[in-house]
Design a protein that fits this description.
- It catalyses: UDP-alpha-D-glucose + 2 NAD(+) + H2O = UDP-alpha-D-glucuronate + 2 NADH + 3 H(+).
- One of its GO terms (molecular function) is NAD binding.
- Pathway: Nucleotide-sugar biosynthesis; UDP-alpha-D-glucuronate biosynthesis; UDP-alpha-D-glucuronate from UDP-alpha-D-glucose: step 1/1.
- This protein is an alpha/beta fold.
- It has 3 domains: 3-196, 3-Layer(aba) Sandwich (Rossmann fold); 205-293, N-(1-d-carboxylethyl)-l-norvaline Dehydrogenase, domain 2 (Orthogonal Bundle), CATH 1.10.1040.10; 295-433, 3-Layer(aba) Sandwich (Rossmann fold).
- It has helices at 11-22, 34-41, 52-61, 71-75, 98-110, 127-138, 159-164, 176-186, 198-229, 233-241, 262-275, 281-294, 296-305, 332-341, 354-360, 377-381, 394-397, 401-407, 422-428; strands at 3-7, 26-30, 65-68, 80-83, 115-119, 145-149, 169-172, 193-196, 312-316, 345-349, 364-366, 369-373, 386-389, 412-415, 431-433.
- The strands form 3 sheets. Strands 11-12-10-9-13-14-15 form a 7-stranded mixed sheet. Strands 3-2-1-4-5-6 form a 6-stranded parallel sheet, with helices on both faces. Strands 7-8 form a two-stranded parallel ribbon.
- The radius of gyration is 25 Å and the shape is elongated.
- The chain starts with a strand and ends in a 30-residue tail after the last strand.
- Bound molecules: uridine-5'-diphosphate-xylopyranose.
- Uridine-5'-diphosphate-xylopyranose binds next to helix 9.
- The site of uridine-5'-diphosphate-xylopyranose has 20 residues, from helix 9.
């Protein structure tokens, strides 16, 4: 078993550290944030991730993992130091490598024995050559340092599972010593390992993420065409999925991909290509389609409603996908400002993301509109003139067509995740718009009192 230090305790670093401890390595996680370190020492996770806290507690009690701000003590005698700090997108789309540079400098000043530095963060191809050079330039002690690339493929919401049971581990090394050490570190995971050179490993990460982004944008593009020609994107996807060359995953059309990886990594790779005098047309198309797709529902609803001014607008789901409290690049962040600008009176529900959203759009008046965060879906739907579904949380999927009909003043639903059956919604009396599918045919337009629910669609709440 090895002595491992992990720099950065975000999604990538913390999950990697905890999983290394889980398979028996001795791990120290380093972060500059003291409050965060104290939180983790008390067994609490700074991020919402299924199964993570349990493993943090278990391995902390077993003495296999510790957390510190003291990087010197963590790095000085480590066999390997994994870097999992962020590489945020810069205004020009390129990756900001300043956090990596800071950690590299600290490593150079701290290590007292031969050590392998492993970059897990997503970095432009060729960066690890520079990191190795940089560390060697600043080395204080006479020790050997090499850098390996070990990109991370975990998805938020299933990060622990994706790490412990990864479909593959990619290691990029430039020497036998580094390759063997990486193989040995990963040996207790019993996973398929793909060993390549460093630049290929760096490229595998971008190529994989961008391929998935392309797949989603392609389906969204086809979905938009389906609407125009009267086809159904879900049936089309099902028909396609039987072809093993296509596969059945990532064929869901919707309101575009969000999150920390796809938006950033598509722009970064496009940028890398540009810097090398090459235009990556496919990836550029994926980015463009995604940008348009994010406000597709709003555009549809705008055509249907003319104005949102004073209307009660129910919003179900704020995060970029279920199972996380992360809002990065979420479609809600594009749509809600548009609705607020139009004077909408929004009632938003999200089981874990509302608190983060309220940091950006505090409860109450925001410009011409208002936003209220509610703890249950019924409160959002009660008396609403229109409902938007942005995230396919389990509790949102569980809402029945009858509930929409009964609770909403106007049962008018715009679903960006295609989670309900079109015909069922129509039969229940709900006017239902989704992505790449026909609209519902509303059979019953009256409420329990026998008056039409659709006449009141433009009537603001409380008037
Ligand atoms: C992704 C990759 O899956 C992971 O391998 C990589 O390491 C990081 O980026 P993540 O961003 O956590 O993980 O979420 P993922 O489940 O891949 O979804 C990303 C976005 O694509 C979400 O907004 C999701 O709603 C959207 N998506 C996904 C679709 O719109 N359609 C699909 O079929 C699949």
């Amino acid at each position: 078993m090895f002595k491992i230090a992990v720099a950065g305790t975000g999604y990538v670093g913390l999950v990697a550290g905890v999983c290394f401890a889980e398979v028996g390595h001795q791990v120290t996680c380093v972060d500059i944030d003291e409050e965060k370190v104290d939180l983790m020492k008390s067994g609490n996770s700074p991020i919402y991730e299924e199964g993570l806290e349990e493993l943090m507690k278990k391995n902390y009690v077993a003495g296999r993992i510790d957390y510190t701000t003291d990087y010197k003590s963590a790095y000085k005698d480590a066999d390997a130091i994994f870097i999992g700090v962020g590489t945020p997108e810069q205004p020009d789309g390129s990756a900001n490598l300043s956090y990596i540079a800071t950690v590299a400098r600290q490593i150079a000043e701290s290590i007292e024995k031969d050590c392998l530095v492993v970059v897990k963060s997503t970095v432009p191809v060729g960066t690890n050559d520079k990191v190795e050079q940089f560390i060697n330039d600043f080395l204080v002690n006479d020790v050997k340092v090499e850098v390996a690339s070990n990109p991370e493929f975990l998805a938020q919401g299933s990060a622990v599972h994706d790490t412990l049971y990864a479909e593959r581990v990619i290691i990029g090394t430039e020497s036998k010593w580094a390759e063997e050490l990486m193989m040995n570190i990963y040996e207790p995971f019993h996973l398929p390992v793909v060993s390549v050179n460093r630049r290929s490993a760096e490229m595998i990460k971008y190529a994989s993420n961008d391929f998935l982004a392309l797949k989603i944008s392609y389906m969204n593009d086809i979905a938009n065409l389906c609407e125009l020609v009267g086809a159904d994107i879900q049936d089309v996807a099902r028909g396609m999925s039987f072809d093993e060359r296509i596969g059945s995953k990532f064929l869901n059309a919707g309101i575009g991909y969000g999150g920390s990886c796809f938006p950033k990594d598509t722009k970064a790779l496009e940028n890398i290509a540009r810097q090398n005098g090459y235009e990556l047309k496919t990836v550029k198309a994926a980015i463009d389609v995604n940008q348009e797709q994010k406000t597709m529902l709003y555009k549809k609803a705008s055509k249907r409603l003319i104005t949102f001014n004073g209307l009660k607008v129910a919003v179900l789901g704020l995060t970029f996908k279920p199972g996380t409290d992360d809002l990065r690049e979420a479609a809600s962040l594009e749509n809600i400002p548009l609705l607020l600008e139009q004077g909408a009176n929004i009632y938003a529900f999200d089981p874990v993301g509302a608190e983060n959203f309220a940091k950006v759009y505090p409860e109450g008046h925001n410009g011409k509109g208002r936003i209220t965060y509610v703890a249950n879906i019924e409160e959002a739907l009660e008396g609403a003139n229109v409902c938007f579904v942005f995230t396919e949380w389990g509790e949102v999927k569980a809402v029945t067509p009858e509930s929409y009909k009964k609770l909403m003043r106007t049962p008018l639903v715009f679903d960006g995740r295609n989670i309900y059956e079109v015909d069922e919604m129509g039969r229940a009396g709900v006017e239902y718009h989704s992505i790449g599918r026909k609209e519902s045919k509303v059979i019953n337009k009256t409420n329990a009192k026998g008056t039409s629910q659709f006449d009141t669609r433009l009537q603001p709440v409380g008037q």
